[in-house]
Design a protein that fits this description.
This protein is α/β, with parallel strands linked by helices. The chain is built from seven helices and 14 strands. The chain folds into two domains: 2-209, Rossmann fold, CATH 3.40.50.300; 220-291, Alpha-Beta Plaits, CATH 3.30.70. The chain has helices at residues 42-50, 98-108, 114-123, 137-150, 167-185, 219-225, 279-291, and strands at 2-13, 16-27, 31-35, 57-62, 65-66, 83-86, 155-159, 187-192, 204-209, 212-218, 226-232, 242-248, 252-258, 273-275. The structure holds adenosine-5'-triphosphate. Residues 4-235 form the ABC transporter domain. GO terms for molecular function: ATP binding. This is ABC transporter ATP-binding protein.
Length: 301
């Protein structure tokens, strides 16, 4: 099942291309990590997926249905294409109590699951009678998450939502979200520019660089498919596969290679060693490779 499909989606703000010809498919009921540097286009992509922002060109489908700008999350669409977005600024009414925010959620969403919202708040010990303006940044993030979860989205978009959480809370939140996704009726897409935040979080990866997807896939598959080969200086690695990165010193060459049939295809030629690659290394390798590509995005049309 596909949660989100992008077909040649581009977005231009004036003369700046924020997204350029993005095509990808993201599987349903998973945690998708959307990774990219500042300005890579993550917020823009999430805004388009949520229907808040129109694409300049291309088509985006959620749950198989094209996203139409302005369609609200309670606009009557089928359950499979309901989207909730938690943007960086976490809109909460400062004078509302936490309980008021849940009432607000119930009043503004056609579908509302009070039990789900309440149990999230209980899980993180957020006092219902406290005014939102008196909550810490991390607690406000939890309230916003509870309201988003209460709307029972098929797709929950979290735009750098964990920034205000301490490391313990962050691990707990992502663990709970993974459990909710594993129950089978919600896909979570969370964006970050901090690769270290990712470990153990996303099980599917989408890496954006300067508005283009440079890597997408199941994290385990990606890690299994890539290998680092080090050996005597050579122009090409000693086996099949696409070269993602090549580095040469006087007497030694190192290649990161994407192999056609997983690590079983690794050819260990005399003098060569193979090493697995970590998730951080994999992402950085693709970002570096993309930065060296000739058609970088800065050029405005
Ligand atoms: N409203 C806007 N008007 C003009 N340019 C914009 C606008 N919003 C974003 N941009 C530009 O589009 C590009 C992508 O921005 P976007 O906010 O989507 O990136 P991001 O990956 O979410 O970045 P960050 O991690 O810093 O939040 C950047 O070059 C940004 O300056």
């Amino acid at each position: 099942m596909t949660a989100v499909e992008a077909r040649a989606v581009s977005k231009r703000y004036g003369s700046v291309w924020a997204l350029r010809d993005c095509s990808f498919q993201l599987p349903a009921n998973r945690i998708i990590a959307l990774v990219g540097a500042n300005g890579a286009g993550k917020s823009t992509l999430m805004s388009i997926i949520s229907g808040m922002l129109p694409a300049t060109s291309g088509t985006l489908l959620v749950g198989g249905r094209p996203v139409v700008k302005g369609r609200s999350s309670d606009g009557g669409e089928p359950a499979g294409s309901r989207v909730a977005i938690l943007a960086q600024d976490k809109p909460l009414y400062r004078d509302f109590s936490v309980a008021d925010m849940l009432r607000f959620g119930r009043a503004t969403n056609r579908v509302w699951d009070q039990r789900r919202a309440l149990s999230w708040l209980e899980r993180f010990a957020i006092p219902l009678d406290r005014r939102c303006g008196k909550l810490s940044g991390g607690q406000r993030a939890q309230v916003a998450l509870a309201v988003a979860l209460g709307s029972r989205p098929a797709l929950l978009l979290l735009d750098e939502p964990l920034a205000n959480l301490d490391p313990v809370a962050r691990t707990e939140v992502t663990g709970e979200l993974m459990a909710e996704a594993a129950e089978g009726d919600m896909t979570v897409m969370l964006s970050t520019h901090i690769i270290a935040e990712l470990s153990g979080v996303g099980d599917h990866l989408l890496v954006l660089d300067a508005g283009r997807p440079v890597l997408s896939g199941d994290v385990e598959d990606l890690l299994a498919d890539h290998v680092r080969l080090t050996g005597p200086r050579a122009d090409l690695p000693p086996g099949p596969g696409a070269i993602v990165q090549a580095q040469h010193a006087d007497r030694q060459s190192t290649f990161v290679v994407r192999q056609p049939a997983g690590p079983a295809a690794a050819v260990v030629a005399p003098g060569w060693t193979t090493q697995p690659i970590t998730l951080d290394e994999l992402i950085l390798t693709y970002l570096k490779a993309s930065a060296g590509a000739p058609d970088r995005l800065e050029a405005a049309a």
